[in-house]
Every structure is written in structure tokens, then in C-alpha cells.
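name: query_chain
kind: protein
chains: 1
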Amino acid sequence: MRINRVPMLVAVLAIAAVGCSTDDGQPTATAAKPPLAYVRYINAVPDTMNTTVRWIDYIEFTPQTFANVAYRGVGQGLYQGLKAGSRQFRIFNADISSFSTAGNTAVLSEQTLTFEANKYYTILFTGYARNGSKKVVLLEDAIPSAGSNVAIRVLNANTGLGSIDAYKTAGVGDAISGSPAFAAVAEQKYSSYITAAPGAFAIRATAAGNAANILASGAAPAGTAGTTSADPIGGATVAGTVLTAMVFPASVTGSMAAASTTPSVVYVVDKQPPRTTSP
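structure:
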């Protein structure tokens, strides 16, 4: 199985491993690879501009790609290697289209959090900047193996929607019936995973206990089957995929958040299907 990681980590490790040189100009190793945790960043603040995460304790073995992340966006590269332990970071305004605008790098949050080696985490930046409710929520990701099925869970990604139910339907416009696949998912919490045979599906989110109050709907990405020359891309139709459906409220009208006029469902691949090419 392939967790989504980015080649940037390789570059960071290479920089860490070759930090200085001998008198004859040959590189010398300065640091062995430490125990790593793996982290990703989700911007769920619907009333501020794009955000960037900067780690302010170490440069080595530290993600550098959670930059200019729009509302409802995930930091580039998804899971990134991070030196485990107590780590300090700041979240800044970071609208790349307006670097000349005064104040566009204001600090929105500063946190010190602990990350355990070999574990996976989501850093969820959530709440509202306008009323002081913005905060960082650290979620541990215990990602299963989907086997010959597809695994799916729901993240209620913000404050304001209240607890939600989520129904798994064949299509995004299909009627809701029966019990929700994911019941009473609290704000800023994951549901448990469920598994299903590969095939197209949608998630339709409603207010908890009120199937008539449909808040948001979204079809899962189909994915792409693998071949002997190209590995598969995770999606609803590709066995072994693990997905999270993230439910977001609308962005605030008049704010600098990326426009989202109604609540929405956005998918992220937690784990890619098994490779079909040779390593």
C-alpha cells in the first residue's frame, strides 16, 4: 500500500545528510535520519486568505510544502516526513497573488505539538478568524488496509455545521434513505471507516437526525486503474483505496477565502492502492 508522500522529503533528507565538507571538499554526513512522523495540513478556516505553515524549530527533516493552501485545500504532497517529538510551528496568511499587500504574512496561530514516530497525523486549521474561534486540531490517522475493497470515512471539518450524518449513495443526486453510513459525526472529528466494493459513489451530508436537511453532496473521484507501466491512482473504483470525505461549510461572503457559496464535500486519498509497477 502507498501512503501519499512527496519527493520533497527526499530532498530534505539529502540536505540533512550532506551538510558540510572536509578540507579536500568532500561531503561529510552531519545527521542520521531520525525517527519520523508523517503529517498533512488542511485549511478549514472559511473567512481568511490562503495559509502557509512554517516550522520554527528545525529546518532538517521538516515539511516545506504546506504553502499557500486555499480554504478547503490540503498542503502540497499530502503526508510529509517530520522529525518526531515536540515540534513548534506557525500558521501565516499567505496569499501568493498579493505578496505586496501589507499584513499578508500575519501570524494566525502558533503551536507546539507532539508527534510520535511512525504515526500519521492531520493538522486541521479550523474555526473562524473573524470571531476568534480559529484553532488547530491535531488528528491522528489510523489508516487501515482496504484489501480488495475501498475504505471511506467522513471528516466534519469545521465549526458551524453542528454534528452531521452522512449517507453513501450511488450518485450525487440520489435520494437518501435508510440509516446514515456515518451517524452523528461531531465537528472537527472523523467518523470510523467503512468498506465497500469498488464502484462509483457519493457522500451526502445532512444535519444530524434530519435527513431532509441536506447540507452538502459530492461524488467521489473515480481514480485510475494501474497497469504494468503506471501505478494506480486512488479513487472509488480502484480496489485498495482509502479515502476521507471532508465536509466544509460555505466560505464567508466578502472574505478572502476561496469562494465556496454552499457547504461542500471534498475528498482526499489517505492511502493509495498497491503498486502495479516494479519498485
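note: The radius of gyration is 20 Å.
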